[in-house]
Amino acid sequence: MLVFVLGVASGVAGALPGLLLARHARHGKHASIASGLASIMGSFALLMILLGMGSLRLGSAFLPYACTTMGTFLALFGAESVVAWRWMRPFSSKEVGA
Length: 98
What we know:
The protein is mainly α. The protein has helices at 2-26, 33-58, 62-88. It is built from three helices and no strands.
């Protein structure tokens, strides 16, 4: 059970840079391409560090940890992408029938 809790925490930690950037942009502050790339590289580096530490520490429990970490990260990344897309393209009544 602890492995899954650690996996979820690691996935959330890996998704935080992108979530913070999206929140920053949502409040009308400038979000440059460079900050977006830095966010992606930061997420990747953090996930690799966390997965590497998990590989060294968890042994046979690494597979459930890694799957939970990546599943959580991808779920949050997908939700973040949909929300950012909605922010960029506000809902209009014309889309209801489409």
